[in-house]
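Following up on my earlier thread - several people asked me to post the actual chain instead of describing it. Fair enough. Here it is, all 521 residues.
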Amino acid sequence: MEATTRPGAGSATGDGVAAAEGAIEVRRPADGSLIATVPIDSPERVREVVEHVREAQREWEALGFAGRRRWLGKLRDWLFDNEERISELMQAETGKVRADAELELPLICDVINFYGENGERLLADETPSPHMPAIKVKRLRVVYRPHEVVGNISPWNFPLILSFDDSIAALMAGCAVVIKPSEFTPLTPMEVVRAWKEDIGGPAVLDVVNGIAETGGALVDACDFIQFTGSERTGKAVMKRAAETLTPVSLELGGKDPMIVLRDANVERAVNGAAYGGLLNTGQICLSIERVYVEEPIYDEFVSRLAQRVSTLRQGTDTTSYEHDVGAMTSPNQPAIVEVHVEDARAKGARILTGGRRRDGPGEWYEPTVIADADHSMKVMREETFGPVIPVMKVRDADEALLLANDSTYGLASSIFTRDFHRGEELARRIDAGAVNVDDVLTHYLTLELPMGGWKSSGIGYRHSAAGIRKFCRVESIVSPRFPQGKADPLWFPHTPRKRGAIRRAFRLMNARGWRRRLGL
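Reply from S.P.:
Thanks for posting it. Predicted structure:
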């Protein structure tokens, strides 16, 4: 797997990380100071870790769903008992404001509760009824059996959520899991895995490895299923490498999520939704609002009010006093990408209404930015920016907005703001995206009953819902008799004219439509 810098949710194998001999330096994005040095795991070490959790997996699977749920319930309890410390650690290595850091832990605990309450039902054997009369003497079963070891390669923007959201589902399904966190933010995942082993004393089915390209590639080679979240480029490299061993993958590869604001929308709600959806976590979310299309009659009011709203946001570092709304950028590579997008828009005639520059001094800072009069000739409307920038484009009507919203290689999520919710749902069916929020932003990620995944270059596979836990299983079909069987079935050898004639007549009677064809007349 090649090293790559992600314009998006962070490289799993990236350049730009400061590394000593055999180690990674983890630094505070807020000021660049060193937090810790983490050893890089060699391919040999990765294979050892994978084999260690593989040895424990069979006993974990045999424990049964109720037993696995009890252990993960202990992890949930530990997380809540250590909530403040985890938020502080995450804030240090990501540069988030405290409010953003505090979002992650309860969301992971919600995933534990959701699959704890629903996973046994979602993984239960299915018993379909045979449609062919001749097969009704058989009992049919669909059985969900876990992959032994899942490798979860996670990014830097949500080190707790994206390291453990899928990992929780995999563990509930009966898999063992090895996490490879981003080289920029390994400390929070490492601490949770340490707690699983030492504080909770959990079974040896959860572990972590650290490194860049070589480590990630070794994990792909060693595991039975790969969950990857990151850039399209690196996702393709993961899939290509996994193809060498026919290892199944699930890829969440980012987005360029559109927001459509119709002329009948509640403008104040739409403005607040755009500001939050575009700037939460400093815009470093694959689900961020990255382009806004506003119908002409309300365009001027919308961009004016959005610029005013964003200009009031407070950027900086904070603690539990919550005096800031927008934090630093986590990856040292990302501010340069944001800067290129903003300057390209400026050069092509867009208006920068607020923000629009990197902040002076240490750390990775870019001002919350609103761009008016954007269009599809600009990078900021075509490429994933993954930063605190909201570009807005004027459109004639909903049809033009939909045409432009679908004019993208990505298709992760989207939003439509209108007071007519029925019309919003009708328009949602015309958007090429895995999820649509009507009169809202980002909420679909919280609705664990719904699958969350992307179309087009936004990825393959889903998290959450039944799909999010069943993807970690191999599907086995079992056919068994309902009654004692004879010495041979009719289809078995030997073939004779009489037997074959009877079989042909039976198949025609069952499958043909219309009595003449059924009777062969």
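Residues 274 and 516 are 64 Å apart (CA to CA). That should answer part of your original question.
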